[in-house]
Amino acid sequence: MTEERTKKSSFQSIKKLFALELPLVGWLLDIAIYGWFWLNMYYEPRIRYTIKLYFRGHILVLLIYAVLLYFLLSTYDGFKIGHLKPFDVILSQAFALIIVNVFSYFQMSLMANWLVRVGPMLWMTILQILVSILWVKISDLVYKKVFPPRRLLLLHGDKPIEGILHKFASRPDKYRIEKTMDIREGIEKVKEVMKEEEGIVIWDIPTADRNRLMKYCYEHEIRMYTMPKIPDVLMSGATKLHLFDTPLYMTREYALSFGQRFWKRMVDIVCSVLLLVIASPIMLVTAILIRLYDGGPVFYKQTRCTLNQKEFEIIKFRSMRVDAEKDGVARLATEHDDRITPIGRFIRKVRIDELPQLINIVKGEMSFIGPRPERPEIIREYVKTMPEFVYRMKVKAGLAGYAQIYGKYNTTPYDKLKLDLTYIQNYSFWLDIKLMLLTLRILLTPESTEGFEEGTVPQTLSELELQNEEHE
Q1: Do the beta carbons of residue 354 and residue 323 sit within 8 Å?
Q2: Does one domain contain both 371 and 458?
Q3: What are the angstrom distances between the C-alpha of 197 and each of 11, 109, 397, 418, 465?
Q4: Helices then strands (H, E): number in the chain?
Q5: Which 3 state secondary structure label does DSSP give 299?
Q6: Burial grade of 182 (CB within 10 A; 0-12, 13-18, 19 or more)
Q7: Directed axis angle between helix 258-294 and helix 342-349, to 10°?
Q8: How far apart are CA 437 and CA 96, in angstroms?
């Protein structure tokens, strides 16, 4: 019996290894397609007359392409087949392929001493994207077959659980909440019920109970998914010290060091000026269309808060009617908000309305990457039930941020806060570069721009349901 169980376990391990390595096969297919086009459509017809390459030279060209493609696929999560939705993986791979192929085109042109033909590169990119779509679909089916949705127990406290149930229901291919249970039923009963499932989701329960259950799950090798509280996020970026004969974690009294602030500012200036030059035609057309639509002002200025709650005037292209808040009451946009103009709906969808904020970055009021700036009155409302909201202003506000890339427009304020604090506590120069690259992807991700559904979020700030979140 033991031998049979061992064989079955080995077979399952082989299947899992096969499923996990499928994304690398797609990467190799893209390299193979590039190799064929490089040799037959570029090197032989043109480049070999200017640069004579032997076998090692061709290997080097392919190696450069492979490394760059691997880096971009990793950055854009293009290898996360089975973990992300197929559409998101395909979009990530398409972005990575387009960027690396543009780089490769100019590399070939330098080798040929003149611009090479664009046609073959376009056909190669189309072919690679088609192969990626097919391979992602096949790999996703294999992954789901090998890794069926995991049966989970959701353990909660006295707070509403509709929100988290909705989140898990959006990924039925990976998670299946079989049961929900209130921690007040007792930890011993929870331990008994856990044996019937494949894992547990620990959601907003008292810290003492959570710690006991985490130790129990770790001891008995039970998979657990845990909602982090604010202190957990703060500790995620702590510096690990070994001054004594016990581990010691240190959190700093300031968010970014002087060196980090200096280089962050340098990147802000270079990127914002460059983008202003590149985007100027788009901004000009947008301004004309807004003006022609209703004759109102092109720009919309609003008081927002940045580093240390300092107030400044943010600049955006106007996307709503001029009288959107004529009663003076601040309202969050809903999914089908009739205050948004047709032109405004489009520019919000593709984030063109944010482009004038590049001027705020040049002026030093904002950074390219950072928590999105909020209005003073919204901050005051949030702080009433969520005092930790001021933590996100330990760094300069940003044009794009961690919460915008890994969340949605309608992500709850508390979840956005945790995402922003994750960025602050784990800040690095390379994290900023990664987030800048990922910002391009969210432009074509509908979920990142969708508004709050009618009835799910209050129309006025005084009705915000922040009390439904736990902030221990």
Answers
A1: no
A2: yes
A3: 23, 58, 43, 29, 32
A4: 15, 10
A5: strand
A6: middle
A7: 150
A8: 10
Q: What is the pLDDT of residues 327-350, one digit of tens each?
A: 655 555 655 677 888 888 888 888
Q: Which of 51-55, 139-143, 212-216, 327-331 has the lowest mean pLDDT?
A: 327-331
- Residue 68's pLDDT is 96
pLDDT at position 438 is: 84
Residue labelled with tokens 């950072």:
370
Is 355 contained in some domain?
yes
C-alpha 44/C-alpha 60 separation (Å) is: 17
Give yes or no for a contact between 264 and 367, defined as CB atoms under 8 angstroms apart: yes
Pairing of strands 175-182, 367-369: unpaired
CB 421 within 8 A of CB 233: yes
Same domain, 31 and 141: yes
Helix (H) or strand (E) holding 265: helix 258-294
Task: Provide DSSP, 214-240.
Answer: HHHHHHTT--EEEPPPHHHHHHHTPEE
In our burial notation (b when 16+ CB lie closer than 10 A, e otherwise), range 457-472 reads beeebeebebeebbbe
Label residue 179 exposed, middle or buried (CB < 10 Å: 0-12, 13-18, 19+).
Answer: middle
Whether the Cβ atoms of residue 389 and residue 417 lie closer than 8 Å to each other: yes
Count of beta carbons in the 10 Å neighbourhood of residue 225 = 14
- Binned at pLDDT 50, 70 and 90, residue 434 comes out as confident
What DSSP assignment string belongs to 5-20?
HHHHHHHHHHHHHHHH
pLDDT in the model for residue 332: 59
- Radius of gyration of the chain from Cα atoms? 26
Do 394 and 251 form a contact (C-beta atoms < 8 A)? no
Record the tokens describing residue 259, joined without a space: 């060196």
Tell me the per-residue pLDDT of 301-326, one tens digit each, with 9 for 90 and over: 989 999 999 999 999 999 888 776 66
Residue 118: domain span:
2-146
Q: How many domains does the chain have?
A: 3
201 — pLDDT class (breaks 50, 70, 90) = very high
In a domain, 243, yes or no: no
pLDDT digits (tens, 9 = 90+) for 438-448: 887 766 555 54
pTM of the model: 0.78
Q: How many whole angstroms separate alpha carbon 64 and alpha carbon 31?
A: 10
- Per the structure block, which two tokens stand in for 34? 């590039």
168 and 306 inside one domain? no
Q: Please, is 233 exposed, middle or buried when counting C-beta atoms within 10 Å of its C-beta (0-12, 13-18, 19+)?
A: buried
pLDDT band per the 50, 70, 90 thresholds, residue 420: very high
